[in-house]
Design a protein that fits this description.
Elements lengths: L1 E5 L6 E7 L9 H12 L9 E8 L1 E2 L2 E2 L4 E7 L20 H8 L5 H9 L2 H17 L3 E9 L2 E2 L14 H6 L7 H16 L6 E8 L15 H10 L4 E6 L17 E4 L3 E4 L7 E2 L2 E2 L4 E7 L9 E4 L6 E4 L9 H24 L4 H18 L2
Antiparallel strand pairs: 1-2, 2-6, 3-6, 4-5, 7-8, 7-9, 9-15, 10-15, 11-12, 13-14, 16-17
């Protein structure tokens, strides 16, 4: 299952086309619109909210048909005459120069629209298909912010505190952080940065519950789930670091103390005594929570003009970025959920079939039964 997108946030609509969708998956636009609200609302996120989503094909009644599913994502179109013109000035902190050199464009305007939109909205909408598939198989994907600037969720081990975090607290937080204390501190720092004309980065965690053990691949390192998830997350704008489980902290530990001991019981089956690996071992799911921490750089600042080059004259000039969000971490976290959902949905389809949901559910049930027999 994969998706393609077209359009930009300033146009009449974004298009998201999802191919390889199994038949018989219950699907509505409600999930897509809910995820869009989570992605585009909250402190410091884009100010061009998406209004609504339409499903144009691939669904009969409320179930998928096996044909590609096409979404139209409608927002508040920006009149062309009101769109900020970039002209010949390359914006510092953006990909203008590399994009212009690649496409031989005459102006930054030719590439700015796609650079600015980065199609996160289309990704989030398309991933509603992957989310629904995973949910039917008992898998839930979530995220929460752990740091903005210098303010952190907790000075203690966040991995050890996951069970304490409430999904509702995350959704009601202006920065998608489960702690009210940390939320208030993060918002205060964001306000201070806004007043100073600065921007902030931060970190968030993706947490996936309900994964079966043994999903993924170990035979080809390029198909291992950690490889695929890492690639998907690095495709998001501003992402500069990804770690699984305890991540870089493991480099400071001594083995085998930081390796997850294997346990077995007739009730729980095979389990781990800890989860330093973050739910992945050599590219396969271990059956524990999948935990991924992602670092996001500060977005380009709209502060004082910075030195750049004028494409027309090839002389030094000064350019300022248009006003944008102070911080993109909360919105990128939701887009990251979407990317991870796609990778995991594809892993399930590859292992358990992809024609229709009836056969997929039967294959999953058979696999679970075999795992239970093996653990007895």
């Amino acid at each position: 299952m994969n998706y393609t997108s077209a359009g930009d946030a300033g146009g009449q609509a974004l298009i998201a086309l999802v191919q390889g969708v199994p038949a018989g998956l219950r699907l509505s636009k409600d999930q897509a619109e809910s995820d869009l609200r989570r992605c585009l609302s909250g402190y410091g996120n884009p100010t061009n909210p998406v209004c609504y989503v339409e499903i144009e094909s691939g669904v009969y009644g409320r179930n998928t048909t096996g044909a590609p599913v096409a979404f139209l994502v409608f927002g508040e179109a920006q009149p062309e005459e009101n769109a900020p013109a970039q002209g010949a000035l390359l914006r510092p902190g953006r990909g203008d120069l590399a994009a212009v050199l690649k496409t031989a464009a005459d102006s930054v305007d030719a590439v700015a629209a796609r650079l600015d939109s980065c199609d996160e909205a289309a990704c989030v909408v398309a991933a509603s298909v992957a989310r629904e598939l995973l949910a039917e198989l008992g898998v839930e994907v979530g995220s929460f912010v752990t740091r903005i600037g210098e303010e952190t969720l907790s000075e203690q081990d966040i991995l050890a505190q996951l069970e304490e975090y409430c999904a509702l607290d995350i959704e009601f937080s202006a920065v998608r952080c489960p702690s009210q204390r940390a939320t208030e501190a993060m918002v205060a720092q964001l306000e201070a940065a806004r007043g100073a004309g600065q921007t902030l980065g931060g970190t968030f965690q993706i947490v996936v519950d309900g994964l079966l053990p043994g999903v993924g691949s170990f035979a080809d390192r390029r198909k291992r789930l950690n490889s695929q998830i890492g690639a998907a997350l690095f495709a998001l704008p501003g992402v500069v670091g990804v770690e699984f489980g305890a991540g870089f902290a493991l480099a400071q530990e001594k083995g085998p103390a930081c390796h997850d001991a294997v346990l077995v019981s007739p009730v729980a089956g095979f389990t781990r005594a800890s989860n330093y690996a973050g739910g992945l071992e050599d590219g396969l799911t271990s059956g524990e929570q999948l935990i991924v921490t992602v670092a996001v750089a500060p977005p380009a600042s709209a502060g004082a003009p910075k030195e750049t080059v004028n494409l027309d004259t090839l002389q030094l000039d000064y350019a300022a970025n248009p006003a944008g969000p102070v911080c993109t971490v909360p919105g990128i976290a939701v887009a990251a959920e979407a990317e991870v959902a796609f990778v995991l949905a594809n892993a399930y389809l590859e292992q358990f079939g992809s024609a229709n949901m009836t056969d997929i559910r039967a294959a999953v049930d058979s696999y679970i039964a075999r795992l239970n027999r093996t653990a007895r």
